[in-house]
Amino acid sequence: xxxxxxxxxxxxxxxxxxxxxxxxxxxxxxxxxxxxxxxxxxxxxxxxxxxxxxxxxxxxxxxxxxxxxxxxxxxxxxxxxxxxxxxxxxxxxxxxxxxxxxxxxxxxxxxxxxxxxxxxxxxxxxxxx
Length: 129
Description:
34% of the residues lie in helices and 29% in strands. The chain is an alpha+beta fold. The chain has one domain. The protein has a three-stranded antiparallel sheet with strand order 1-3-2. Helix 3 packs across helix 5. It starts with a strand and ends with a strand. The relative contact order is 0.31.
């Protein structure tokens, strides 16, 4: 039996952060790569030699301050790609702090519940014969 669990690596979202994240992703686009989006349904379709026994999608919920959230967002691959392309990292944090302040004014004291999409899949090999 094999089991997979994953938190989909993303900046994490809340309804009021979606517009800000869209602007962030336009400003610092995701690099083109070979990564493929996965979820329980896609894994079940591509299981090949496996039979999916159980699967569930859920959100991991974390309480983060604004500063902690920005720290996390700055670890994303789109930020790394922007830095490799010549954008100074020292210019990205101030942009984040200035633009997010309209929807999340308190940098250190107020926390928000941030949702990180996740899933769990458990499968076993198909029997041959």
